[in-house]
Amino acid sequence: MTTAMATPITTEADLGRLLAWTSPAYPIGGFSYSHGIEMAVEVGALRNRADLVAYIAAVLADGAAAVDGPLLAAAWRAAQAGDAEALDAVAVLAAAFRGTAETALESLQQGDSFARITQSAWPDAGFAAFVARHPGRLAHAVAFGAAAGFCALPLRAACYAYLSGFVANLVSAGVRLVPLGQTDGQIATAALIADVARATDMALTTALEEIGSAAPMLDLFSMAHETQYTRLFRS
Amino acid sequence: MLPSPARHQRADGGVLARFTAAPRGAAPASLYQTAPLRLLLPDPEPDEVTTAALLNTGGGLAGGDAVRIGLDLAAGARLTVATAAAEKIYRSLGPPTRIAVELTLEPGAALEWIPQETILFDGASLARATTLRLAPGSRLLAAETLVFGRAARKETVTTLNLHDAWRLHLGDRLIWADALRLRDGAALADRFRFGAAGALATLLCVGPDPLALLAVLRGALAGPARADATQPAPGVLLARILGDATAVRATVAAAILAVRAPLLGLPSRLPRLWTT
């Protein structure tokens, strides 16, 4: 844990990969997932910027990020160590650790797309072999963590980048759904910076057997979204 | 095997049982039990399958207590398991209360696992792990309810340490995993976490025709509690029920009533343990 917590040295090439992999332009379909925000807006539980910040803060501290952050870190460590058995166990656990049908789709579809595009644009033999063992069954966080581990990107930076990308995507969904002004969206992103750092700390210090969430309200929004009458988003 | 005794544990025991198929549902092929847990097998109602009552003779569990429940259902065995009363998890002075539940179903076995509520007192520390190993062709209805604080005393939970993990294996593959993790009571009040609810129930169904059963389940969840259902993994149905303890109990009961017949072929009525 101490090495993982140390300040990493991120080279420009590392930074380039992380910026590419977390950019909304990386074509994995993130724009089509709201992670329950569409339902929360529909029922009036999420009406303004402050609500959006509170919702995403809950996702980071006690929702999907509390599970996916440590899974990303575990995938990174196993990939770095070349421990295929441990990496496969993380992948199976992560694919199973999904609270609802739509959050499972959100993670597994983006994980699959991320794996395919990353193999084409940033080929790596170890990553390719790993992906081939889990066709269509890779959680986004695990595909990301493994890819970062195989090419030795710094763990903390990779984790922080992944969670920042996740937050940016949810803010974007909120901006479109509430709706909020583009500037309000960026104010929300800025307000969540400390929450992303805390979620990164938690990701690097939480053992796999300790992971868990504490936000059944978020699961209920996601479940209700499955039967929402008019939907723009896939989650 | 039962956990090995440790000196400072107030309770350290459990129930390990294997049931084989019998005309009325199931018959115990082996049954080992140590205090504080006991498994009783009262005569079931005429149209019910074999019903087992799990009893904690110690009245509740404190920090440092450890209990294990392991039930194996052989091919074709059909069993309902409920508890005689709500389980109480008392304030811990440090070490957690540990509960391990392992339920194994062979092909064609059917288990209804419907313990009554687990009440977490303010200051409780609980680590519970429920492991379900289901052979293809087995059927499961499992419902568990956590109550945060003694509702009758209007107790507010501020200190709580909870890790409640579920692992569901179908055949030799882990297909669903989940854990609730609370390190204090703050999440209970938050509108995007527990929404000030006093109780949370989790209901799992595994069996044939999940989409038809999902519709039945959703239909049964309208009520005073916030509740909904989903299929988080192929063939696995999950419902979450959130609200005050009374509303959650009523909604869980309605959901059990609705899925008993289509999933397990049992009458649409609550087992007597739930109603007395």
UniProtKB/TrEMBL annotation, chain A:
Keyword Cytoplasm: yes
UniProt-listed Pfam families: UreF (PF01730)
Record-level GO cellular component terms: cytoplasm
Entry superkingdom: Bacteria
Keyword tags: Chaperone, Cytoplasm, Nickel insertion
Main location: cytoplasm
UniProt GO molecular function: nickel cation binding
Cell compartments where the protein resides: Cytoplasm
Family statement drawn from the similarity comment of this UniProt entry: Belongs to the UreF family.
Subunit structure: UreD, UreF and UreG form a complex that acts as a GTP-hydrolysis-dependent molecular chaperone, activating the urease apoprotein by helping to assemble the nickel containing metallocenter of UreC. The UreE protein probably delivers the nickel.
Described purpose of this protein according to its UniProt entry: Required for maturation of urease via the functional incorporation of the urease nickel metallocenter.
Protein name as it appears in the record: Urease accessory protein UreF
Organism field: Humitalea rosea
Gene coding for it: ureF
Automatic annotation (TrEMBL), chain B:
InterPro entries documented for this protein: UreD
Subcellular location: Cytoplasm
Subcellular location, principal: cytoplasm
Keywords, comma-separated and alphabetical: Chaperone, Cytoplasm, Nickel insertion
Pfam name, any one: UreD
GO cellular component: cytoplasm
UniProt GO molecular function: nickel cation binding
Subunit record text: UreD, UreF and UreG form a complex that acts as a GTP-hydrolysis-dependent molecular chaperone, activating the urease apoprotein by helping to assemble the nickel containing metallocenter of UreC. The UreE protein probably delivers the nickel.
PANTHER family: UREASE ACCESSORY PROTEIN D
Function according to Swiss-Prot or TrEMBL: Required for maturation of urease via the functional incorporation of the urease nickel metallocenter.
Recorded family membership: Belongs to the UreD family.
Protein name as annotated: Urease accessory protein UreD
Gene transcribed to yield this protein: ureD
